[in-house]
Automatic annotation (TrEMBL):
It comes from Dactylosporangium fulvum. This is Integral membrane protein. The chain crosses the membrane at residues 33-56, 76-94, 106-126, 138-162, 169-192, 204-221. Keywords: Membrane, Transmembrane, Transmembrane helix. It comes from the Bacteria.
Length: 225
């Protein structure tokens, strides 16, 4: 008589565990609609350009030694645009997951995006009220922090959450690259002379990076199928 257990059907437990892990990984991959999220965010970035251009305030006093530069379009366009974008991304993820008979884990990402949108809106409103009457020269690290809590910075922070939820190493690497471009910023020597268009190179580059990411993840998804 022996007390050794016999695997059901004579199968190796380690092989069963490996199959379960492989199945779990395939489920996580099938849940991903990364390309759609990046495409929506790229569209929001490009559509925001005319708003930022039209509502940009640039006013100089006297001999132009004191000037005010303010991107009011950030407040008039970006909060609503990002909230609608995160809602659209969440709906898409849920519909795709249900169509494949899976569960969706996109809610923490959407909630993070909403929270970051509220945070940057509050910060920019406070800055708009305070700094016109309290001019100040900022060190470089403050400018980097400002870019981090800007709409294009918070997009990257929220994508880090999505990469964690999806356990998507590719998205993590992409997001770190996007944040580098958005925060440094990297403009590849592309400049405009007019003050009202100085923001355009960076915003176009940010949107292009997101668009290229969407195309890349869409092509990678097709190859897996």
């Amino acid at each position: 008589m022996t007390t050794d257990s016999v695997p059901a059907g004579g199968r190796d437990p380690r092989r069963l565990l490996s199959e379960v892990r492989g199945l779990a990984r395939r489920v996580r991959v099938d849940q991903r609609v990364t390309w759609f999220a990046l495409l929506v965010l790229a569209a929001v970035t490009f559509v925001g350009i005319p708003f930022d251009r039209y509502f940009l305030v640039f006013h100089c006093v006297g001999d132009a030694t004191a000037c005010q530069f303010s991107r009011q379009g950030v407040l008039y366009y970006w909060p609503l645009a990002l909230l609608l974008a995160y809602a659209a991304i969440a709906v898409c993820y849920v519909r795709v997951a249900r169509a494949r008979g899976l569960g969706a884990r996109v809610l923490p990402y959407a909630l993070t995006g909403v929270a970051l949108t509220v945070l940057f809106t509050a910060a920019w409103v406070a800055a708009r009220l305070y700094f016109p009457t309290h001019p100040h020269r900022f060190p470089y690290w403050v400018l980097v922090l400002d870019r981090l809590i800007s709409p294009w910075g918070t997009i990257g922070v929220a994508l880090l959450v999505l990469a964690r939820l999806e356990r998507n190493v590719g998205l993590l690497v992409f997001t770190l690259g996007y944040l580098t471009v958005a925060l440094v910023p990297i403009d590849f020597g592309w400049h405009w002379d007019a003050f009202r268009t100085t923001f355009l190179p960076q915003q176009i580059i940010n949107g292009t990076v997101l668009l290229l990411g969407a195309i890349g993840f869409a092509l990678a998804g097709r190859q897996r199928r």
